[in-house]
Specification:
Helix content: 25-40%
CATH architecture: 3-Layer(aba) Sandwich
Shape: globular
Order of helices and strands: HEEEEHEEHHEHEHEH
Mean pLDDT: 90
Strand content: 15-25%
Low-confidence stretches: 277-281
Bound molecules: hypoxanthine
CATH superfamily: Nucleoside phosphorylase domain
Oligomer: single chain
Structural class: alpha/beta
């Protein structure tokens, strides 16, 4: 794994002129922020060792490096999902690569179903914490031999989403007149949406939103000592007495929220403290 990361790192590093410090992973329909980079260099996933081509509509397959709100960023346009058949190691490979390229911060977004009747489609939730259900079933990106060059054998996940970026996110949202929800994101493997009984179970477990990504990437980012800030766009409500979810409405909600979401992320990048807190190298 370390050698493959090193190969991928050297391919990408040979193409880019800016050393990225912030990694962005953009979820369903939100990838266009990467079109707004200054001095962008785009590397198709097909040219990066260890990468695959995303297959889900709404997900492209490119790594873009450039400046966003003046910050050197690397944006993954399209991510790999466990439900596509990739292993948890494959799903999280890009995070390892971005860490190796110099990113100390991960800004991650996803589309999620809202489990709360008092929330609305289009709401943006800061991920305050996660529940990683596939990990409970043995599907975990850190299973197997641990390479200490990446991080410790038993990394802590308490406070994974807490950092000096949280007050920045709240302040930027407030300045933009945006109601920022905060809650617990639960990852399920998918690809089927939840039954009513599963929705009730997730709510009873303390989850506020449900989706099919993000938790493995965050675990690997924290394993590598990265600072993490995460957001879910509530693209549909996952309520037992509601209507069934479908992928088209997920993409449509992403489309609608794109300008607000992009403004939030750009505002955060513009006000991001220059150096990360002490938990990140
Ligand atoms: N459930 C799971 N994943 C999702 C949903 C949902 O309702 N909406 C968007 N991703």
């Amino acid at each position: 794994m370390y050698d493959l990361i090193e190969q991928a790192r050297s391919v990408v590093a040979g193409r880019i002129r800016i050393r990225p410090r912030v990694a962005l992973i953009l979820g369903s329909g939100l990838g266009t922020l990467a079109d707004q980079l200054d001095e962008a260099v785009v590397v198709p996933y097909a040219e990066v060792p260890g990468f695959h081509e995303p297959k889900v509509p709404g997900h492209r397959g490119e790594l873009a490096v450039g400046l966003l709100s003046g910050q050197p960023v690397a944006v993954l346009r399209g991510r790999f999902h466990f439900y596509e058949g990739y292993s948890m190691q494959e799903v999280t490979f890009p995070v390892r690569l971005l860490r190796a390229l110099g990113c100390h911060t991960l800004l991650v977004t996803n589309a999620a179903g809202g489990l709360r009747a008092d929330w609305q489609v289009g709401d943006i939730m800061r991920i305050a914490d996660h529940i990683f259900l596939p990990g409970f079933a043995g599907h975990h990106p850190l299973i197997g031999p641990n390479d200490e060059r990446f991080g410790p054998r038993f990394p802590a996940m308490l406070g994974a989403y807490e950092s000096d970026l949280v007050p920045v996110a709240r302040a930027v949202a407030a300045a933009q007149g945006l109601t920022l929800r905060e809650g617990v994101y639960c990852m399920l493997a998918g690809p089927s949406f939840e039954t009513g009984a599963e929705m009730r179970m997730l709510r009873a477990l303390g989850a506020d939103a449900v989706g099919m990504s993000t938790a493995p990437e965050v675990i690997v980012a924290r394993h590598g000592g990265m600072r993490v800030l995460g957001f879910s766009l509530i693209t549909n409500l996952a309520l037992p007495d509601g209507s069934p979810a479908n992928h088209a409405e997920v993409l449509e909600a992403g489309e609608q929220a794109k300008p607000r979401f992009a403004a939030l992320l750009r505002g955060i990048l513009a006000r991001m403290p220059a150096s990360p807190d002490s938990s990140a190298p």
